[in-house]
Fold this sequence. Notes:
Elements lengths: L1 H5 L1 H29 L30 H37 L3 E5 L2 E5 L6 E16 L2 H7 L1 E15 L3 E8 L6 E12 L2 E8 L30 E10 L4 E8 L17 E8 L12 E14 L10 E2 L5 E3 L15 E17 L2 E16 L2 E18 L1 E2 L6 E2 L12 E12 L15 E16 L2 E17 L4 E3 L3 E11 L1
Helix pairs in contact: 2-3
Amino acid sequence: MSLFFSALPYKIHRVYMPGLAALIGLSAASVAWAQAALPDAPAGAPPPASAEAPAPAPPPPAAAVEPAAFAALSAKVDEADQNARIAARKLELLEEQLTVKANERPGIIADDRGFGVRSADGANQLRFRLQLQADSRWFLGDTNLSDRLDTFLLRRFRPGFDGTVLNIADFRFTPDFAGGTVVVFDAYADIHPAPFVRLRAGKFKAPLGLERLQADQDLPFVERALTQYLTPVRDVGAALWGDIAGGIVQYSVGIYNGGYDNSNLDVDSNHAKDVDGRLLFQPFKAEALRALGALGLHIAASQGDRRGLPTAPLLGTYKSVGQNTFFSYLAPASDPDGSKTVFAYLTQKRINPGVFYYYGPFGVLSEAVWSQQQVRKGNATATLTNKAVHATASLVLGGTNGYDGATPTRPLDFAKGTLGALELAVRWNWLKIDDATFPSYADPAKSASKAQGWAVAATYVPSRLYRLAATYERTSFTGGAGTTAAPKDRNAESVLIGRVQINF
């Protein structure tokens, strides 16, 4: 627009002024022509009577304008007007071209997905991300736990980056520096020539665990449910996946190293691999059904071999929400010949059905996991099946709910008087160890055979970038205390966890 106004005086002088002069000349000529057309007084008529001196003679009449000249003058006026319109349109086109070129320059990205840079055409992007979770953990009612484990801690500190190359390949790298060690959680490339066929390779989440597949920062609770311990945290491999019919059906099938329960490995210790598959059916993504909310029906499964050793058992341990281990297989500190240590031996299978439904501020998510693993101790073998279930319901006040977390309708803005959103949630979760595990493969005096927990949570969500959260959970146990000959139930665990989270 500044270019248009700077050219305005030029347009007036070169285009409109000649047209104005032509109009003035035309008006004068029209008056003279009208006067010339008046009839003359009859011959011999007496002059009008007057008491004064006779009026001076009128000026001679102006020459009449020929119709051809009038038409030529009108054509020039029309031409001048047309030239003015053409000049104005050229200026508009020039301004549009300048705006397009300005938008094509390499730019800086800053939104709730992170900060980064992009190429002029948007085909290449690089984004910088951060997930920071600072927790406080307080155990209630059990002085043994509270005296030892009440603490402030850095639960997650994950700076990372991701991006896109040529609009066809995405990549991500996410390390975690919390806990005094560096662990890589994500390091993969994802090639997507079309929405229905994508190839992902590297280290990423296997398609197991409906809640596991949710991002940590979007959960209604500060810790995941007990079902997480029967699936791997991350695995290394390659998978084909994609969305069919606009996401109504999503599939994933891949070959992985084969992570055991609750593991996060970078390499495989044997040649055997896992095959994992998943189907997610979301019928309400059909255009005619979108008003009904978001429904997801999830089914996943995996199978592979484990070739553990007494020195590398490849078996998981299970923890409470307070991150206290309540179950582990036998692994004595002193076992010279390895005959007393339990290790994974051959096939592991998992089945994982789940469902979620979100409508406006309301949401529910539930799933079950069966994990069957062959184990060995000395010359004895067994096939053990552990199982877990959880159900979560959540309500977002002042926002919308979804599988990707709570989103405020109006983020916090003191100037506008908006406050963000408040998410409330309740959860039940349960994990059961195969009865055949005790006492041959686990010590009933040290490992519980069952854990069951109830939890409530409140999360203030000013925006997608940060949140303040609190979770209270009480978990009761069957077994896990006393002696091997006379096991008793472990004390129930009551824990209050607070969190300050920054995420972009």
